[in-house]
Amino acid sequence: MTSAAYYEEAWRLFAEKQYAAALVSIEQAIDLDASQPKFWFFKGRTLRQQADYHAALKAFTECLSLNATHYQCMVERGEVFCQLDRFAEGLADFDQAIQLQHDGYSGHYFRACVLEDLGRMDEALLTFDRAISINPENELGHLHKGRLNVRLERFEAAAFLFEKAISLNPQHPESYYSRGELRYNQGQLLEALQDFNVVIDFDPDHERALHKIRLISEELDAENRSSRY
User: I need a surface site. Which of 13, 40, 77, 224 has the fewest CB within 10 A?
Assistant: First the structure.
């Protein structure tokens, strides 16, 4: 087989979520031709799926050594740096990605996330705004800006953003979870319970939602007992 054929095979296996087999195929492609940035990029993505972040970092770095203007590789290497708690290096990659593609959503979105992790809240808010202005139809920007507003105790703004995220993608359980958590903390137990139950409809093993449902059930039971006397 040629390197291109191994690459196509790796894509097929990746699409089938056969990541170990996909990794074997892409490594065979690299053995035949190690000069192709896309082979190294694909290897990095496959290793991320296996949570082998150090190896993924090496693959993405090799890709960028062959093509320093590979925007998506720069973004994904930045994500890996952050997964390894190397936030400053991740931020540097996101900054570089934005230089490569000023209107690239993912560069701004992940830059906002890492700024929040670094405690640079005002910058994070502005960068989320920039990401949302580029792609207002992506629910993740609204969701994570909403979570940041919760941390800043801007609860009305957070509620609006969670509603927006849900309206953009009613199939995303984390938006319901975040709205439910906000409602729970504001004492809106029945509304919060409804949100957490939606989360469980999508993901029956969602541990945080299950925990919140148990807490609400206990609180409602306690209220019912006290109302008898």
Answer: 224
Hey, which bits of the chain come out as E strands?
A: none
List the one residue out of 39, 13, 44, 41 whose CA is nearest residue 28. 39
Q: Please check whether residue 180 is in contact with residue 196, taking contact to mean a CB–CB distance below 8 angstroms.
A: yes
How large a percentage of the chain has pLDDT more than 90? 94
Cα Rg of the chain, angstroms: 22
In 3D, which of 103, 108, 52, 47 has the Cα closest to residue 75?
A: 108
* Cβ–Cβ < 8 Å for 124, 147: no
Give the relative orientation of helices 189-202 and 173-185 as an angle to the nearest 10 degrees. 160
Distance, in Å, from the CA atom of 10 to the CA atom of 3, rounded to the nearest integer, reads 10
- Alpha-carbon span 82 to 106, nearest angstrom: 14
Judged against a pLDDT cut of 60, whether residue 227 lies above it is answered with no
Q: What is the mean pLDDT of the chain?
A: 95
In this model, does residue 229 exceed pLDDT 60?
no
Please tell me the distance from the alpha carbon of residue 229 to that of residue 227, in angstroms, as a whole number: 6
What whole-number distance in Å separates Cα of residue 84 and Cα of residue 78?
A: 10
